[in-house]
Amino acid sequence: MNAFLLKTGVLTLSLLTLFSCNDALEEYNPSGLTAETVYTTPEGFETLVNAAYSYQRWWYGKEEGYNIAETGTDIWTSGSGEVFRDLTQYLNLQGSNTALTSEWREFYAAINLCNGGISRIDKAGLSATLRPIREGELRFLRAFYYWHIVESWGGVHFTTQETNGIISTANRTPVETFYNQIFEDLKLAVANLPTTQPQYGRVTKGAAQAFLARMYLTRGMNKEALEMAQAVLANTNYKLEANYADLWKMSNLKTREAIYVVDYSVNLALNDLVNTTFNPYGHGRGSNNAHLLFLMKYDDRPGMTRDILNGRPFNRYMPTRFLMDLYTDDDARYEGSFQQVWLANSTSRPAGMNLGDTAVYCTRKEIPDAFEATRKYQTYDRSKIYNANGTVKDNLRYPTLSKFMDPTRASLNEAQSARDVFVIRLAEVYLIAAEAQMKLGNLQAAADYINVLRTRAAKAGKAAAMQITAAQVTLDYILDERARELAGEQLRWFDLKRTGKLLERIRANAPDNAVNLQDFQVLRPIPQTQLDAISNKTEFTQNQGYQ
Q1: N or C: the chain end with fewer CB closer than 10 Å?
Q2: Which Pfam families match (predicted)?
């Protein structure tokens, strides 16, 4: 189904989401034949709103979204299991890329659903109390989806009207028009949404404010970004975790640091795995797959076998040497983000190696050869992983991003995780405030915001060493700090693009990704399936530079 060849009959919408419900947003599928009969009841309208949320799962926690948002930047490059090297290393990137095709399709379906809900809400029979809340949610979601679209593809198709039947033409709309609508929607969401919601996963006033702050920063509206960020920071519902590593515990998914999440059910059958009978429009892996993607190949090393604790290694992405070098020895975020040691767990082990002994050690540092020769375990140090120029030497073994690992999975080969995705957390809001202050010329105030996070990140006794001064605050420093704090959290490509640093920092810091990089690749190619489907091909053309 192409983006503009959409039908909005209730059967289609129900099938898209009936078995994509999560642990908080319970979906109700009333019997009915048309949208007009279903969405004019409060119960039916809840189906629409819950369905509008579900499309986020096509990006957050999914390989397609991670490839588009994190790889092809200065901090990640291809592991040996990478399947979208055209995104990560810009290797003949074209509109045939299936990750981009999937996200385009799902985002525009989500936009259409939001448009339909906003236009129908007055006839939904909602109470005077509930109506503005549901409109606020739909407005937030429309802004959220349009942000992904406009930043990824630029001035492409835009509409606020529900599509009924088949539309075979597309328009080219200026980026500014997208953002005008994003700001209008988010301001209404901030005004309408409550501070808390009875169901976990629904957008709140704080989430709308935090996302609006991100949007203001994106558009260079620094005073407005600062004011909105400060409003969130003043909200006592949110609180930084005292220990960075605690953020990633499966037992701590409801942390007060998380401002907005895409939540996944502990009952994996209630997530979004494709099922030909019940959920034909679902995802091929369903649930959260982040735990698979950043893991190095450990399970073929002496003394090691695959287990639940160490995860199922898809070996898709590995850190650039640049990312490894961003962390100082005083910064606990390195150990809180990366796994370096694998303990022997196999019945077959080298002589002298016991269960629980170190079997594999991957380090960003250099280990003297003489010391390595004395170890029973295998070592992969800086010069074994990377060449002298920073290109990758070994894309099988490297420090592994451990933020998203899930030792609660039922089996060692389980691809689905119930881990929620933190889309916006309080730490990002501190960094938004810092960047806004810097751009307003208030360097000490910017340093103060950054130092809040660096104090939290400091190892015991190292808080003073982790503080920065006003003189150190630059845009590049803030981008470095965002990498240390937010690596892997589906923000990096957007951060580099909005700051105008994407090309520069890839070329400076990610030599494997830079080989094929072209200036026009600050935008993604429009999916070829979309271009093939429309009739006004001379008006709606491929983004510049792509075939």
Answers
A1: C
A2: SusD-like_3 (PF14322), SusD_RagB (PF07980)
- Candidates 375, 370, 371; CA nearest to 352 is 375
What pLDDT is stored for residue 34 in this prediction? 64
Q: Are strands 317-319 and 76-78 parallel, antiparallel or unpaired?
A: antiparallel
Q: Look at residues 401, 422, 445 and tell me which one is the last residue of a structural domain.
A: 401
DSSP E strand stretches across 200-306: 258-262
Q: Residue 73 is part of a domain; what is its CATH number?
A: 1.25.40.390
Q: Model confidence over 473-496: pLDDT tens digits?
A: 999 999 999 999 999 999 999 999
Rg (the chain; Cα; Å): 23
Which tokens belong to 205? Answer: 């006033």
Q: What mean pLDDT do residues 297-321 have?
A: 98
Burial of residue 348 (CB within 10 Å: 0-12, 13-18, 19+) is exposed
174, 53: one domain: yes
What is the total count of domains within the chain? 2
Q: CA nearest 139: which of 91, 182, 197, 169?
A: 182
First to last CA, the chain: 23
Q: What is the mean pLDDT of residues 240-269?
A: 97
Distance (Å, whole) CA 36 – CA 39: 6
To which residue do tokens 């490509």 refer? 493
What domain range is 332 assigned to? 291-401
Q: 91 in a domain, yes or no?
A: yes
Q: What is the DSSP letter of 250?
A: G
Residue after which a domain boundary falls, among 377, 401, 425: 401
Q: pTM of the predicted model, to two decimals?
A: 0.94
Distance CA 2, CA 15 (A): 17
pLDDT band, residue 164 (cuts 50/70/90):
confident
Closest to 309 measured CA to CA, from 414, 152, 209: 414
pLDDT score of 328 more than 90: yes
Claim to verify: residue 39 and residue 181 sit in the same structural domain: yes
Q: Is residue 510 part of a domain?
A: yes
C-alpha 487/C-alpha 495 separation (Å) is 11
Q: Is the dihedral of CA 501, 111, 96, 171 positive or negative?
A: negative
200: in domain: no
435 domain-assigned: no
Are 499 and 505 within 8 A, CB to CB?
no
Contact criterion met (CB below 8 Å) for 333 and 485 = yes
Query: H or E segment at 527?
Result: none
Cα separation values, 131 from 8, 14, 177, 183, 305, Å: 22, 21, 26, 20, 54
Chain centroid offset of residue 388 CA: 31
Q: 506-543, pLDDT tens digit by residue?
A: 999 999 999 999 999 999 999 999 999 999 999 999 99
Tokens matching residue 377: 């375990």
Q: Which residues pair with 338 in a beta bridge?
A: 401
